[in-house]
Structure formats: structure tokens, C-alpha cells
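Here is one chain, start to finish.
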Amino acid sequence: MKAIQVGLIGLGTVGAGTFHVLQRNQAEIRGRAGRGIEIAMVAARSAERAKAYQAQVGDGVPCIGDPQQLVDNPDIDIVVELIGGIEPARSLVLKAIANGKHVVTANKALLALHGTEIFEAAREKGVVVAFEGAVAGGIPIIKALREGLTANRIEWIAGIINGTTNFILSEMRGKGLDFGVVLKEAQRLGYAESDPTFDIEGVDAAHKLTIMSAIAFGVPVQFDKAHVEGISALQATDIKYAEQLGYRIKLLGITRRRDNGIELRVHPTLIPSTRLIANVEGAMNAVVVQADAVGTTLYYGKGAGAEPTASAVVADLVDVTRLHTADPDHRVPHLAFQPDAMSNTPILPMADVQTAFYLRLVVADQAGVLSRITTILAEHDISIDAVLQRESAEGERQTDLIILTHDTVEGRMNEALAKMQGLPTVLAPIVKLRKEELA
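Its structure:
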């Protein structure tokens, strides 16, 4: 049988990894796919870059400087988009679909913002859009959610899905260093980009979480409704206090089914140090899924890098090759649910989210302060789980008051915080972090 012809757009870190994995493991891939998978053409966004690509791949595969020519080439069966960003990736993917070609992409931003449009276009043309590499690199979490857990009603997902921020938090905890110092080290080691905004402000994690949430709960991708907080304001002091209380702080993406909607949020989170996910260190990723039949499952591995992500891209190529001639109506739906079974369940605003909290207040060291604060919490029906009092680094006659609460509605907590912040004995902005038991 004739080999499937693949057009590869982009030969950066993941593109080069994909090329080399396909070349190295050809025999195994052919045995699993049932036919060969060949890269027939590579495209760059300029003639100069195409020349550099040609030097990388050798003379056997033509490299061109116009991706439009690749998606219009009638000999190409599958287009692999690995250039990232929104444009021209969106236009190229939609044109490839319009031309009746299957698409494989690792572009989480594209799918988080335009996935609904892209999946609908693919459904109308009867082609596949595969995107395992878009979430958590080499961890097969998309396949697990779409296929492995298809018998389950998924209750919640919590994931460490950005390696840069996890490396920074691991270093802050292990060495007691402040965020800025560790960020510079992460950039020096290549874990963080020169402009790390998407990583450290939680945007990258929110892109990935949006995709997982859509698959888990059968809703459209809705990145614009996600609550996103990063780690740039996180202080080493709070990491230390969390540790003393038996918790570790991770940047978590959390999506949870509630009676009144779906939570979709990314933020620094205290997790009990006894949980497996709390002990995921360095640049590694991990995703916990809670489902009704199977219970709790954990998926752990490298969330980025040339070959881990290439592993996911090539797995998608094998899947698409197997399904190339299959009836489109009998393929696994892009977002796990059949199009007519998708729901319009709302994404909850943060004011309606239920979670527990860590609060750190710098207060005057005098009688009655704790009593007034606990009274305010009680007035807002917020119960206390634990209290820790420590000498403040801010100066004499001040103390750090750390409070852990039980679950409450975020809007109620914000009202209580506004009252506490107005007390003359509260001497600095109150630190508020969310806490999840993940039980």
C-alpha cells in the first residue's frame, strides 16, 4: 500500500524532533500504522529559512519557503502544523481542511482560541484534526480523556501542565529563593523563554486546560472564560509557610463539574504534600483525573521538548493513517462527544467558584487582632481549618498571621477580605492563595 504523504510546516524544536523520530522508528511505525508514513515536503515561512531546513533534512525531502504551496499540494494527505501562534497557522489549517486534508497540530493557543471553528470545518469536510501534542507534551492525556475514560463521567481534572513554572516553584521551595532570582536561572538553563510571560502568567497552562475541559465535559473550547493567574507575584515566604502547614504550592489548572456550571481556572494552589502530584518536581508535568467508575488516575511525564512532543505528534500521524479511509461518522469525535451531544453548560465566574483558602496577613502584634479577624470570617460563614502565627520579617511589633479556611464561595471570601483589609491593625496587602485537597 502506498505510504501516507505528510507535509510538515515548521522544523523548529518539535518539527525537527518529529522528522527524526519518524526517520528513526520507520519500521515500528509502519508495523503499527499498517502502511508507511513519509514526510514528502517541509515548508518554512521564508525562502531563507527553507534553505536552512534543507541543510537539516538533506536532499531527499524538498523544503519550500511558502506553506501555502504545501497545503495546496494534491499529493499531501496530512498536514502537520508546528509553527505555533495564531496566524498564519489558523489560515493554513483551515485551508488544509478545505482542501480535504487531515491535520495534526501541537498548537494549543490556536485550538484554545479557534478550536470550535476548526473542528466544525473538519467535521463538514470529513477530515481529522489530531492534537495530542498540544497538551502536556509526550503524556497521552488527550487519548486518555477521549478514549480510555469514555465509560466515565469525569468529575474534575487538576494538572501541572507548564514545565517552566513547575521548575521555578521547585527551585523556590528547594532553595528558598525569590521568584525573580529563579526566573533568571530558568532562562539561563533554557527552561524559560527570554519573554516568559505566557508561561509565568499562566496563559500557556490555561490554553491546555481549556482543551482538556472541553473534552472532559462536552462543551465548546472557551479560553476567554478561563480565570488565569500566574506565579510572578508569589513570594518565597508563602512557599515556606505552606510547607510548615503540610502543603506545597503548584501552578494548577483545575476544571471541575458543579451543579451550576463548570470551573475553569489556573492559579497557584496549595496541595497537601502527601499527594503524588505535589511531589512532581522540576520541569515535569502531571495531570490527575477524577472519574466516577475508575476513580483517580494520574498521568506523569515530560510536558515539552523535541522528542516527547514529537512522540505525541507521530502517534497522531499513526492514528490518522489508520483512519484515513474510515467512515468519518464512525471516528472518535474531536472533543470526545458527538456534535449533537455537546452542551452549553456555563463556565462559572470566579466569584461562584468553591474552594478553600490560604491567607497571610501582616498585622500589629497586639491583643484582640486575631479575634477581630476571626469574627469577620464567621460573619461571612467562613470556617477556619488552621491558624499559624509567626514573627514577621516586615519589622518589630508585627506578626504574620496565616489562616487556612475550609471550602467557601470565592465571592464571599472577597467580601470578607475587603473588611479585613480595612482594619487599622492589618498593615499590608493580604495574600490570598487557593487550597485544594484533591481528595
